[in-house]
Predict the 3D structure of the following.
Amino acid sequence: MPNEISKELIRQIDIISMVLDKSGHYSEDEIADLFSESLPTVRRDFAKIREMGIALHSTKRCLFIEQKIPTKLLNKLINTYLALNDTEAIKNLQGISKIFKDHTLSYFVQIVKSINQKTIIEFDYEKDSYGTFVQRRVTPIGFFKTNRSFIFVGLEDEDLDKVRFYLIEKIRDIKFTNRKTKIRTLPTMYEFLKDSWGIYQAGEVVNVVLLFDKKCTHIKNRIFINNQEIEETDEGIYFKAKLKVSNEFISWVLGWGKKCRVVEPVSLKNDVKRIAAEILENYKGK
């Protein structure tokens, strides 16, 4: 697959997603009409798709992809469509594909289109106390890639105070509507995440100062949050940032053990000491 992301390549991924989603539904002429392209142009697209290793063929004038697309190639298609690094694997893609089956690529493509077109998406997500899936009505904002999967970010019920993060593999019975959101100016992903530790939104924004052991030199080459400052001193390596202190951030600090000490704020220092004491208490007499 070529490294550059051209409109032709995006169109080819669109075609693949459509045929996978509705095998035997589209004819060559219908594809040409849908993309406002000539028949020779879309036939060149079909040839390029086959060059990717995808067995696209026509039977009784309808298009089929009968063979399952390998996970590695599906990974490249999705990452390319999302304009991400197409060499970085989505580690949980095999699990996601088991849930969404032939709709996997189509769902990613349609979510991106809904984000661009600012149209409402409806889906079931998690269960209530009665064990029934709860339907969500979401204005999509964007994707956030984690180490293992994708987080889908959106506003529930067109409410700016209801920013929600959804694991893509937990979404069920997704419906893409043509209804435009009533919100005129949607916040950006940067606005959602600028003070957060990863995707986690909990906690108040505070000034955090951590002191790392001198041997933790790789800290200097990592960007954990946009506003961070790194300073090498005789005492060690100082990490300074303004961020929301969430339970996930506290767990990250604890994970460094004695190589990291909280300098500020006092509240974070006390939380780390309390949790460390609770961990030790769990091992008393054992």
